[in-house]
Amino acid sequence: MSGAAPRPTGLFRVYRGATRLLLPLAARSVAKKLRAHDVPEARIAERQGHASLPRPDAPLIWVHAASVGESLAVLTLMTRLGERLPGHEFLITSGTATSAELIEKRMPPRCRHQFGPLDAPGPVDRFLAHWRPDAAIFVESEIWPLMLVRTRASGARLALVNARLSAGSVRGWSKWPKTAAYVLDQFALFLTQNRASTDNLLAMGADPARVVTGINLKSTSAPLPVDQSTLAALGTALGSRPVWVASSTHAGEEETVLAAHKALLAQHPDLCLLLVPRHPDRRDEIAGLIARAGLTHCTRSTGALPGPQDQVYLADTLGELGTWYAAAPIVFMGGSLLPIGGHNPFEPADAGAALLTGPHVTNFAESYAPLFSLGAAREVKDARELTGAVGALLGHPDTLERMRAAVRDFATRRQSSLDEMVETLCTALALDTAEASLPRRDRT
C-alpha cells in the first residue's frame, strides 16, 4: 500500500448497503442466541449499538474479540497495557454469551464488557458515538469492513493483534484486491501470530511497514485460575489414584480417548480420566459414548465427585479448566486427532503438565515446535499410540518428571515477549502522546 491511500470501492459500498438491508434478520438471529442463554434484553440491545454502561471520563482503548478463545487470549495483554498506561480505561467487546460470562470472571482492572455491534451503519455509528474510543485493538481475524472504516474515520488508531488469516480467507480477499487494500489500510499495525500469518497478510495487500511478526498471544496469557477448594475436594475423592486429562475434545475424538483409557485400565485398574469436552452441551452424547465403551462415570455439572467405581469424570462445566490441569500430571489436548487445528497448549503448560497431542495442530504449529524439541510434548495418532504414551509416562515417573520440567521451562521463557508487544502497540497507536492523554470529547 504505497502512494495515495486506497479509496472506498464499489464493492465496499455494496457491502455497506447490504448490511443495512440485512440488519433486521441478523439482529433477530443474534438476539435469539443470546436469549437462549438468558441474557437480559438491555444487554442484547448492545448488539444494535445501544450501550448499557456510561463511557468513562478518560482515554479509552477498545478491544474487540469474537468469542471465548480470542477474548481470553487478550485479557493478559489488556492487564499489562493497563499497568503501562495507568490513566487509560478499557472496553472489551465480544459476540457470544459464553465469552461474556468468562470475561466477567477474569476482567482486568479499569475494564468493562459490552457485546460488540453488528457490522451495519446504525449499530456501529451508535456504538462509536457513545464510546468514542481513542484506539481500537481487534483480535485474530476480526476484519469487519464497516466497523474498521467507521472507527478509523472517528479518529481512533487501529491495530490487529494475534493476526491469523487462513489460506481460504486470503484466496477470498484476493479476488477483490482493491477492497482488501482499502480495508487493511485502516490498520496502523498488524501483530501476527507467526510468519505464515505475516505472509498471508502481505499477500492480501497489507503495508509491509505496518506488519510485525510476533508470537501467539495465547502464549502470554496468565495461568488459568485454580479453585483450591474444588482441587482439594477432587484430591480427596481420588486419593492415591493416578489421573490424566483429555481436554477440549471434539466429536469423533472421544471414542479414541475412551478406547485408550479402557486399554490403560488393564495395567492401571484405578486410573481416572478427566474428560473435558470442548463443548459441554454435548454431555449427553458423550455420556452415551462412555456407556457404550463399557466404562463407568460421573458428571461434574451434577455436583458429583468421582467415587472408587467411576473410571471417567466428565467435566462438563465452563471456567474450571485450570483446576483440572492442576489435578493431573498428563494432559492430552483435543482438536488434534482430526483436522481441526488443535487448541491452546499454553494453559496446560502453565500448570506443568506433560503434553500429548494429535498430529493436526496447524493453528499452533509454531508453538508445538519448541515443545517437541524440548521434549515437553509428544505426538500420537490413534488410540494405540495414545495408550502407549500415557502408559509409558505412568509407568516411568522419572520420564514424566523430566517431561514436566521441560514444560515448565517452556512456560517461563515466553512471558518476556509480552512487554515488547505492549511497547509496539503504544508506539503504533500513539498511546503515550499528550493527545492520547485527553478524552476525545475534549479535543479540538
Break the fold down into its secondary structure elements and pairings:
Elements: H1 10-35, H2 41-44, E1 60-64, H3 68-84, E2 89-94, H4 97-105, E3 111-115, H5 121-131, E4 135-139, H6 145-153, E5 157-163, H7 167-174, H8 177-184, E6 187-192, H9 195-204, E7 211-213, H10 228-238, E8 243-249, H11 254-264, E9 272-277, H12 283-292, E10 297-299, E11 312-314, H13 321-327, E12 330-333, H14 346-350, E13 354-357, H15 365-374, E14 377-379, H16 383-395, H17 397-413, H18 417-428
Parallel strand pairs: 1-2, 1-4, 2-3, 4-5, 5-6, 6-7, 8-9, 8-12, 9-11, 10-11, 12-13, 13-14
Helix pairs in contact: 3-4, 3-18, 5-6, 7-9, 10-13, 11-16, 16-17
Structural commentary:
The chain has 444 residues and is α/β, with parallel strands linked by helices. It folds into 2 domains: 10-22 and 29-215 and 417-439, Rossmann fold (3-Layer(aba) Sandwich); 228-413, Glycogen Phosphorylase B (Rossmann fold, 3-Layer(aba) Sandwich). The protein contains 18 helices and 14 strands. The chain has helices at 10-35, 41-44, 68-84, 97-105, 121-131, 145-153, 167-174, 177-184, 195-204, 228-238, 254-264, 283-292, 321-327, 346-350, 365-374, 383-395, 397-413, 417-428, and strands at 60-64, 89-94, 111-115, 135-139, 157-163, 187-192, 211-213, 243-249, 272-277, 297-299, 312-314, 330-333, 354-357, 377-379. The strands form 2 sheets. A 7-stranded parallel β-sheet has the order 3-2-1-4-5-6-7, with helices on both faces. Strands 10-11-9-8-12-13-14 form a 7-stranded parallel β-sheet, sandwiched between helices. Helix 3 (68-84) runs parallel beside helix 4 and helix 11 (254-264) crosses helix 16. It is globular. The chain starts with 9 loop residues before the first helix and ends in a 16-residue tail after the last helix.
